Amino acid sequence: RAQIVYCPLSGERSLACRTREIFVGSGARVEMVESCRLNERSSLISASYARQQGDSVLHGVSVGLSAGLMRNEQTVLLEGRGAENHTNGLTIAGEQEHLDFATDIEHIASDCTSYQLFKGLAADGGTSVFSGRIYVAQDAQRTEAYQQSRNLLMGDRARIVTSPRLEIYADDVRCSHGATVGQ
After folding, report:
1. Does the pLDDT value for residue 180 go beyond 80?
2. What is the pLDDT of residue 9?
3. Structural contact between residues 118 and 89, judged by C-beta atoms closer than 8 angstroms
4. Residue 55 CB contacts under 8 Å (≥ 6 apart), including other chains
5. Under 8 Å CB-to-CB from 144, ≥6 apart: which residues?
6. Residue 115 phi/psi, 5° resolution?
7. How many Cα atoms are found within 13 Å in the side-chain-facing hemisphere of 113?
8. Neighbours of 124 (CB within 10 A)
9. Do residues 70 and 40 make contact, with C-beta atoms less than 8 angstroms apart?
């Protein structure tokens, strides 16, 4: 299990860029929790790239609590038969904050499963963004893939942008996606 916490120690303006690669071998199980809280004058650009082999499990939770600007991109390749992925996230955008999460889950092998749940909350003047894609290759038969984006607006100037997408080229699949935004 890995836990990543990113918090600048000062109130100064900062820009942080980070990249991580995760390789989950056959039969392995990895749990990763990351949280980030920045001041309103700081920005974070983050990219994560994961590859999963057969019968592996990867659970990931990303939490963005505050930042002037935060962009978090996550790419997962389910390359081995029977791989299971859980990619979840939460953003809480306050006034004048922009928190943006993007995911790309690619089912390459057969009999794989993925679950995504992203929740966003935007307060007056804040923006929360989720853009997610699930790709199912032609040879990825018996895929199960589920994607949800659930969001709350807190004020007249709050903004939520959500775009869940499915791209399916296999015939024998169970896939769904959806989004809700409410006050």
Report:
1. yes
2. 46
3. yes
4. 26, 27, 80, 81, 82, 83
5. 112, 113, 114, 173, 174, 175
6. -130, 130
7. 9
8. 14
9. no
Query: Which amino acid, residue 60?
Result: G
- Reading the block at residue 96, the tokens are 């004048």
Query: Hey, how many other C-beta atoms are within 10 angstroms of the C-beta on 25?
Result: 13
Smallest CA-to-CA distance from 69 within 14, 110, 116, 134 is with 14
Report pLDDT digits (tens) over 40-79.
888 889 899 999 999 999 999 988 888 888 899 999 999 9
**What does the pLDDT look like over 102-145, one tens digit per residue?**
999 999 999 999 999 999 999 989 999 999 999 999 999 999 99
For 54-137, list the strands marked E by DSSP: 57-66, 69-78, 84-93, 98-107, 113-123, 127-136
CA distances from 45 to 14, 19, 61, 74 (A): 11, 9, 17, 11
